Amino acid sequence: MGKLTLPRKPAAGQRAAALAEYERCKSILRSELGEEPGREMEDLRKGIAFARKALMARPARFTPSFETPLIGRVSELGRITAAINEIETHGGVVLLVGEAGIGKTRLLDETTVAMLR
Fold first, then answer.
1. Taking a C-beta distance cutoff of 8 angstroms, is the pair 51, 36 a contact?
2. How open is the CA angle 23-109-46, to the nearest 5 degrees?
3. Long-range contacts of the stretch 69-78 (C-beta < 8 A, 24+)
4. CB-count exposure of residue 21 (10 Å: 0-12, 13-18, 19+)
5. Which structural domain range is residue 24 located in?
């Protein structure tokens, strides 16, 4: 299962909008996938609700160590980056799904590195 992330609305002072987005995402997860939000997403909701932590802040240093180059994923990398940029502007979610072992985490790590450049 991929990751479902909340928009950066709390960083812009839109806490109520972020909580509404969480509820919408939770509803979609239940109705369309039969899943509940994961621990990470629930922790984010708690952070939004109680304003105890900065949400979705980019890490100060993210230095993954890739032993092999990313091959054949330029299109996917661009689509994910564009979707994340759209979320920052208009809100929404990015859901990355696929079979185990096909490179979902690597693709997200590469996206993070690309966006931090």
1. no
2. 25
3. 70/106, 70/107, 70/110, 73/103, 73/107, 73/110, 76/107, 77/107, 77/110, 77/111, 77/114
4. buried
5. 9-116
pLDDT of 59 reads: 53
Residue 58 is classified by DSSP as P
What amino acid is encoded at 38 in this protein? G
Name the residue with higher pLDDT: 12 or 19: 19
Residues 57, 11: contact at Cβ < 8 Å? yes
The domain tally of the chain equals 1
104, 55, 9, 96 alpha-carbon torsion, rounded to 10°: 10
Identify any residues that bridge with 95 across adjacent strands, giving them in sequence order: 4
User: Is 99 within the bounds of a domain?
Assistant: yes
Q: Which of 60, 61, 76 is nearest to 110 (CA)?
A: 76
Q: Tell me, yes or no, if the pTM score tops 0.70.
A: no
The answer to whether residue 84 is domain-embedded is yes
